[in-house]
Each structure stands twice: as C-alpha cells, then as structure tokens.
TrEMBL record, chain A:
Domain (Electron transfer flavoprotein alpha/beta-subunit N-terminal) ranges: 25-210
Superkingdom, natural source: Bacteria
Similarity comment text for this entry: Belongs to the ETF beta-subunit/FixA family.
Transmembrane segments: none
Assigned keywords, A-Z: Electron transport, Transport
InterPro entries per record: ETF_a/b_N, ETF_b, Rossmann-like_a/b/a_fold
Protein name, as recorded: Electron transfer flavoprotein subunit beta
Alphabetical list of SMART domains matching this protein: ETF (SM00893)
From TrEMBL, chain B:
Protein name: Electron transfer flavoprotein subunit alpha
Domain of life, per lineage: Bacteria
SUPFAM superfamilies xref list: Adenine nucleotide alpha hydrolases-like, DHS-like NAD/FAD-binding domain
Family: Belongs to the ETF alpha-subunit/FixB family.
Electron transfer flavoprotein alpha/beta-subunit N-terminal domain residues: 4-185
SMART domains per the UniProt record, alphabetical: ETF (SM00893)
Organism: Sulfobacillus thermotolerans
Amino acid sequence: MRLAVLLKTVPDLVEELALDEDARTLLFDEMSYVPSEWDDQALEEALIIKEESGAEVTVIAVDTGDVDTMLFTALAKGADYAVKIVGDFDAAMSNWQKARVVADYLGRGDFDAVLSGVQAIDDVDGQLPGLVAGFLGWPHASVITEVRVAGGSHLQLRQEYAGGLVAELETVTPIVVGVQAARKPPRYASVAKVRQVAKSATIDEVEADVAEARLAGVEYVRPVAAGHAEMIEGDIDEVVDRIVAILEERNLLRRA
Amino acid sequence: MGPILIVLENGAAGVTEATKECVNKAKSLAAQLGTTTVAVGFGKQHVSDLRRLAVTKVVIASGGTMDLYNPDAYEKVLAEIFGNVKPYLTLIANTTMGLDLGAGLAGRTQTPLIAYGIDIEEQDGRLTAISQVFAGKLLARVPIPEDGAIVTVIPGSWPADNEAGDPEIEEWTAQDSEAMRVLRVVEPEQSDIDITKADILVSVGRGIEGPDNLPLAEDLAEALGGVVSCSRPVVDAGWLPKARQVGKSGQTVKPKLYLACGISGAPEHLQGMRDADLIIAINTDESASIMDIAHFGTTADMLELMPALAERLKGG
C-alpha cells in the first residue's frame, strides 16, 4: 500500500500574528511558521499503518517557504520518501491553490490513500484533504481517528461525530482521509536525528504552475470581543482569596 | 441570481439546530437579495419535519444508503443536486458532515469555499462572509464572488429557524456508494462520570502539560464537589478518556461553574461550554480566546493555583 501524507506549515500562534491593521492584510513574510498540528497526527497514523502492514509513506509539501525541515523531520520519524512541489509559490498561497497543485501531482501517481490533517488554522478557503479529493473525484472522509488496512485494497476508518458517536467505514482505494487524531500521540524525532537525515536523505522536487486563487479581496481583522474576563490580579494567595469569594457569592462552595 | 441552498442534517435526532440556524440566515439573505431558498435533506428519517420547513423548496434525497450518513454517497448526490439547483450561495454547518461535504463539494464542482463562517453581511446586493480563522485570533472578511460560493458555518452563529412552512417538495433518487459503506455506528463509550450532568467542572487543556499533573485537577475537582473534564488535545494525547471531552466533537456542557485551566479556547471548544453559568479561566495568556467569554480570568500558573485553591477549599 502506498500512502501519501500532505504536510503544510502555518503561522506560529505562539507569536503575535503579523497584521497590517490599516490595510487589513496579513504580512505573511513577517511571521514564523510551524508544521500544522493536525498534519502531524496524519503522519503519525500513516507511520502506524506502515508498522502494521508494511505500507510505504511519502510525505508531500508545497514549497511555500521553508518546508525542508518539516520534510526531513518526517523522514527522521520513519517516512520513506519526501516530495516538495516547487514553483512560483509563497507563504500567502491559498489552500485552494495548494490543493490544485497537490491534486495534479497525486493524479499522476499511484497512491492508494492520501492522509492529511482534517483542518488547519489558516483554512479560510477550505480544508486541504476535502478540496484535493474533490478535485480528483476520489472518495473522502474527514474527522478520522483510525485508519487500518483491511486486506486487499480496502481500508477501515473510524469517523467521529458530535457527542462521541463514531462510525466505522469501509472504503476502497484510492481515498483521501482528513485525520483528526492518530491512534497514538505523534512520535518525536530529535534535532540530532533530523540533522543526520538532512545530510543523507534527499527531497524530490517536482515543478508545478501556480493555480488561480478563487477568493479575492480577503481582509483580516482582529475580533472585537463582546466582553473580556474581569482579570484577577495579585499573587497566588490573593487569586485564591478572590476565587473563593466569587464562589461563595454564588453559593458554589460545598457546605462542610 | 441562483437560490440559496441549505444542506440539512436530519439524522436520528431530527433536523439539527445547526442546520436550522442556516435556514434562518438563508431566509433573511434570500429576502434581501430577492431570491429563493432550497434545502436538501437526506433519507427518510424525520421526513415530515423536512416537509414543514419554511423554505421555498425541499429536495429529499432518498434510496441507496441515504438513511445512514455515508460521506461518499452523500457527497455524490449533493453534487448532483447542486448541479441541478445551481445555487448562488450554499450553507453547510461546520460539523463532521460539513467538513466532509463542504470541501468535497467545492472541489468537485469547482465552487469557491469559505470555511468557518460566523456571519454573512449584505450590502448593496453584495455579500461578505465573516470567517473565524487562526484559532479565533482573527476574522477574515471574504467578499462572496459573483459566481457564488459555499460557506461552512460554525454552529451557534445565528438563531435557529423553527417556523413552519409549506415548501415545494422534490424527491431525488440517490445511488449507493460503490466506494464506501458504513459497517456500524458505535454509541459513545459509557463512562462512570457524565460531565453533562455535573454542576461543577474543572476542565484542563494543554496547560496541564502531562498526565502526571492530572491529580492536581482531580484534587481540586473533589474539593469543589465537581469532576474533571478537558479539551480535545488532552484526549488526543491519551491522558483522559473521550467521555471527558468538552467541545464540538465531545460533549456540550452547561455547568454552574466551568473552571478552565490551561485552555486557550479554540472555537471548537467554546462551542461546547460557552453557556456555562460562571466561567473562570486560568491561562498565562491574557489575550487567549477563552478570556473573551470567561467571566473572570487570571494569568496565574495553573500548576501552582490548582493545589493552592484545593488546599484553601479543604480548609487548609
């Protein structure tokens, strides 16, 4: 079984988002980027499948900036091949555009299943796995928490719904899967191991033309919160005093 | 201008509130734009409710595997109906089904998609979707293109429409999916603790750092007479069972006290707890989204505050 895992980077929310508040634009070049956490879950699930059934895992990223470290990290974790789709791309590239070039690449290959994070924090124009599946006309399921090879060319998926309800699906391949969470927490690759892999492994580069974005004039603004919490200041004892007083006022303390 | 299409969820529990919210917004936008509303429902469950929706027309896709949600079968029949209705705007609630069908339909029909919508504004006949992105830290204002768009909408964005109507009904025959079948649907695991019935929840997020710190939360919950719940990352890490999860893919809770410890407040989490009577948030980041809906907040270190509060409550 040949698995493709789509990886992308997103702005690091630990830092302040670089917003030009007057022009209402995001300053994509002024932000630092980290791998999207849901993609990390998708990679982990693919690596679990590889361990269980000997699948071959190819990680794929669109070159919107520095994606090499992310790809080498995936190789260090156990992925077999890394592909970088290169072209006239930048960090402002939309998901629609990424999905278009990824779908074109996947359509030329013979992958059995494509796994990617179910969503990402910058999905304003849609989630990558669904768009890719739609472009390819392949079946697709999102919010998946388990993917198992069920013999032959079938996969079994666990799909989650609100309230903890779960469906077990059986599907033929090829299929695109939006992974919510892997069966185990994502594994860790040490910096030393990633460095070592970066020296010995190669990333295959595939050229592509940029596709047209479908949304224009997108503006970004900070939300005006309807309210904000009344902040409790002071040291730990003072905060404890205040919380106890608030609970007492509302009759929420247990009677001794 | 084409109609406004609403994709309904009408499973075992009936037409969901989230899709009735989309019906409400579709009706007001249609009135402003001078167009009609078309709703698509699936299968025979609660079909009488579909026939009473206050929209212009209801298309009911039945046959095949429509009685049980099948992502592939639903997407294919929806794409057929979409091609027939030729809507200007399509509204889908951002649930698991919405995540499947929104992007899938967009890709299949080459229709632009705007995800995580929380509102749609009309001005001079032009629509702008407001979308919540970057974990709620920013709003995107997205002009809806002249050739239309699909918008997936975060549940709770508008009031639900409960008006009764007499829509035109169109039956649509769906095909079985050749690619996918539902093997079984599993009810949520039974837990000894039902967080939806607790008056007091001590809810932990990533800030708990690891399972070794969970006893601090358990201890505080016990001192308060409550139970421990959590946000999604804690379940994904395997530190607490799924039954303790609050949020979109977990439980919706409305306790008297929700003590949010180390929870940033992603939209999916807020969806499950925003109606709590009293929300106190402990988070080192004062600008975290949880602070926008909390009544009280503190930037104290939760790992210090939880044991100190527990000790005081126990009379220490």
